[in-house]
Amino acid sequence: MSRLFLYFFIVLGVSFLCSLLESFILSVSHAHISLISKE
Question: What is the number of other CB atoms lying within 10 angstroms of the CB of residue 26?
């Protein structure tokens, strides 16, 4: 039973990291696009 909770928290952590990485990439690319359009 404890192994089930371990897997659950691992999946939750990976999902959290992926969403953080996605928002970081999207915000960086958005800033990069606006910087390019200013030139």
Answer: 10
